[in-house]
Write a structure and sequence with these properties.
nine-stranded mixed sheet, binds coenzyme A, two-stranded antiparallel sheet, alpha/beta, 2 domains, 18% strand, Peroxisomal Thiolase, Chain A, domain 1, 11 strands
């Protein structure tokens, strides 16, 4: 396998972007990434794009070709492939691009991720997202992702004594980070009382325990490490890519508080990277709901099962803690355009490892981890990156 580096990153503002089309968003992110990478465009061997449900959200399928066309590359006939894995579509697309270079097939690949979710009503968005749950066993009976994660939260509270305040503190922390990120949907700090007194969504989760419905796009340019130096003096090496899956429905799991897909993807990634949890300087984890961040830091092995809430109390995951988590604001505050999220996580890690994260910069960041989940944990991808 060849070494692979990220040589360029690009992001649109996340939010309710009524004035921008799907085409404009992906072209903006892609052109920023290409400009940042130092390539001209003719070097691109392939494109991959993560998008969960463009057919339902904007009535458009055939996204691979559309993205190549919208980026102005249709005349080059570059192979362009859409990748779908629910909210993990972006992470999966990055992994496909990584594998195609590591295998020796391609040298330069552009990976995009996009979702435009606000063109449909809130109800339609919830129904569309619920299609990533098990239709027969969950969605048919009215289960939505907020309610599925609410069940995980309730069980976590029962098993481990995790408190409502600890959940709320995840939102407070991520909004505090998001306030420092000019690309975030919500660039504002929130107080604990605000989270605790917010309108209920599914007990114990309230409005501020949920990631929002978001429009946005992200892109990265990947290149074989040996050729990366032709384009940039700041490549960031992908030192591991781990993927795993699990039962689609929650009831099929050995323990609903543990995402075994995360446990297994992380095991593979740490083994490939030949590093341990102690070597990680920062992590972007999939906090689609506040409880998801607590489960993630446990399942990634940063602490024992059940101790995630305690870690939040001890401020370990704060920007200036020993393991800063979701420095971008996470899905909670930066926003969660589902197909773009996994790519945007890589953008944040690369920005941090290059030392370009401005007010939210983690001091001396060398190694970062990105964790992207599909549905309630049926798909998981973990990437580990190192600044060189
Ligand atoms: N966090 C913070 N603020 C939010 C928010 C969120 N998650 N969702 C909405 N808001 C804000 C809006 O900006 C708006 O503020 P304004 O009145 O100042 O403009 C206000 O709350 C009401 O917004 P609205 O769009 O009417 O909210 P809603 O009740 O329709 O939707 C949720 C709220 C939580 C149901 C929706 O955000 C949601 O479904 N989130 C989960 C998405 C999801 O499941 N993703 C996949 C995960 S696996």
């Amino acid at each position: 396998m060849r070494d692979v580096a990220v040589i360029g990153v690009g992001l649109t503002k996340f939010g309710e972007l009524w004035d921008k089309s799907f085409r404009e968003l992906i072209s903006e992110a892609g052109s920023k990434a290409i400009f940042d990478s130092g390539i001209g465009g003719l070097e691109i061997d392939a494109m991959y794009v993560g998008s969960m449900s463009s057919g339902r959200f904007i009535g458009q399928e055939h996204i691979g070709a559309l993205v190549a066309d919208a980026s102005g590359f249709s005349h080059l006939n570059i192979p362009s492939t859409r990748v779908e894995g629910a909210c993990a579509s972006g992470g999966l697309a990055v992994r496909e691009g990584y594998l195609s270079i590591a295998s020796g097939l391609n040298d330069v690949v552009v990976v995009g991720g996009i979702e435009k979710m606000n063109d449909v009503s809130g109800t339609a968005a919830t129904e569309t997202l619920a299609m990533a749950a098990d239709q027969e066993w969950e969605a048919f009976f009215g289960a939505t992702f907020p309610s599925i994660y609410a069940m995980i939260a309730t069980r976590h509270m029962h098993e481990y004594g995790t408190t409502r305040e600890q959940l709320a503190q995840v939102a407070v922390k991520n909004h505090s980070n998001g306030a420092l990120n000019p690309f975030a949907q919500y660039q504002r700090e929130i107080k604990m009382e605000f989270v605790l007194n917010a309108p209920p969504v599914a007990y114990p989760l309230g409005l501020f325990d949920c990631s929002p419905v978001t429009d946005g796009a992200a892109a990265v340019v990947l290149c074989s490490l040996d050729k990366a130096k032709n384009f940039t003096d700041k490549p960031v090496k992908i030192i591991a890519s781990g993927q795993a899956s699990d039962s689609l429905a929650l009831h099929g799991r050995r323990d609903i508080c543990t995402l075994d897909s995360t446990v297994q993807a992380a095991k593979k990634a740490f083994k490939q990277a030949n590093v341990t949890q102690k070597d990680i300087d920062l992590a972007e984890v999939h906090d689609c709901f506040t409880i998801a961040e607590i489960c993630a830091i446990e399942d990634l092995g940063f602490m024992k099962k059940g101790e995630g809430g305690k870690a939040i109390d001890e401020n370990i995951t704060n920007l200036n803690g020993s393991l800063p988590v979701n420095t971008s604001g996470g899905l909670k505050s930066k926003g969660h355009p589902v197909g773009a999220t996994g790519v945007a996580q890589i953008v944040e890690i690369v920005t941090q490892l290059r030392g370009e994260a401005d007010k939210r910069q983690v001091k001396d960041a060398k190694i970062g981890l990105a964790h992207n989940v599909g549905g309630s944990g049926a798909t998981c991808i973990v990437h580990i990156l190192e600044g060189i």
